[in-house]
Amino acid sequence: MRRTFEHVLKSNSKTFYIASRLLPKYVRRDVFKVYSFCRLYDDNVDLDRKDDTNELEDYILKLGIDGSVVRELKNGINSDINRSNIDDLSDLLKYSYKVAGCVGLMMCDVLSIRSTIARYYAIDLGIAMQITNICRDVLIDYRGGRVYLPSSMLGSNEISSMTDVEILSVVTKLIKLADDYYNSAINGIRFIPIRSRFSILYALRLYQAIGHKILRDQQKYFKEKISTTLSEKIIIFFKSFFELLTMSLRQSNRKQHNHTLHKSLQGLPYVNETV
């Protein structure tokens, strides 16, 4: 059964799978189950499948994951039913919190991270990764009848009537927004248990690299799904390794969490509601 859960992750998210293989074995098992629950529940909604996720949901709740977080995740995924559009950046951030920030919160429990502040950064990492996914899959989503680019950024235009330059302009702004959340999430790496720290940092840099590659390879963006090559993954691996080594030297430069990143999320579980 463990291999089945591992296969779900491997076949749906090669980037996260690669990073997850670096986690300790005892953590990896639960990560696979958490991801499988999220993926299967999402497929039930998006692909109208009928996979039973109740047993997996019961399992992850027994790990100590807050039921309110699971509910928000399901609410976010369910919102894709009959989705027409996302009105503005605030709506995009709320959606990203629900479908991905909540996964970050669930990972905190799997990794036995209890710090309240750490959860702020976990939310930021989830949001950043989701925005990256949205930017990468704009055309794929559109062909599937879904648009996640905020209407306020598209004006009165439909994606089908926009030029490549206009679409890239919106995507570029969102990739830069994602970087704000990635840069915040980096400050939360210190809360992660040492044996799991590199895996999360590596996943962060792999996902961030996808957005940066979109900006570099704009001509390819409309021809193929942008992803990092094996050589790029290897380079990022060693860069992340040396970055982790130098983090301890920057302890005195720790920054407080930027509460404005959660301004649109007020009222949702575990967000930074500093006034």
Explain the layout of strands and helices:
Blueprint: H1 2-12, H2 14-20, H3 25-46, H4 54-62, H5 67-78, H6 89-110, H7 116-136, H8 138-143, H9 151-154, H10 164-185, H11 194-216, H12 218-221, H13 230-247
Give a written overview of the molecule:
By secondary structure, the protein is mainly alpha-helical. The protein is built from 13 helices and no strands. It has helices spanning 2-12, 14-20, 25-46, 54-62, 67-78, 89-110, 116-136, 138-143, 151-154, 164-185, 194-216, 218-221, 230-247. The longest helix has 23 residues, at 194-216. The chain starts with a helix and ends in a 28-residue tail after the last helix. The model has no long low-confidence stretch (mean pLDDT 90).
Could you list some keywords that capture this structure?
globular, mainly alpha, 275 residues, 13 helices
> How many angstroms separate the termini?
46 Å
* Share of residues in helices: 55-70%
Query: What's the helix-strand series?
Result: HHHHHHHHHHHHH
> What fraction of the residues are assigned to beta strands by DSSP?
under 5%
The biggest beta sheet reads: none
What is the arithmetic mean of pLDDT?
90
Query: Can you tell me the residue ranges where pLDDT is under 50 for at least 5 consecutive residues?
Result: none
What is the 3D form? globular
Number of helices: 13
Estimated radius of gyration: 18 Å
What structural class results from the helix and strand content? Answer: mainly alpha
How many strands appear in the DSSP assignment? 0
